[in-house]
Amino acid sequence: MDAEQPTNRIQSNSKTYAGKPTVRDTRVAVEHVLAMLADGATPDELLAEYPFLEVADIRACLSGRNRNDSPFIGGMTCAISGG
Questions:
Q1: What is the residue extent of each domain of the chain?
Q2: Nearest to residue 44, comparing CAs of 2, 6, 1, 80?
């Protein structure tokens, strides 16, 4: 498991994607990852579609959904295997 804190994988920049939280140095919005998972995509499907993402990135997106101060969308659960 990646020792990096999940919050280090999520960034917000007012110049990228209207300041919405994105995964690391990508233009992939956290809300996009969560919406795809909510629509039934598996973590493996996301990793195949976005090969630059890592399992830890998906975990970081999911972990933010439970924080009260988080701008992430929530209300979903997803099992993610190793990586």
A1: 6-64
A2: 80
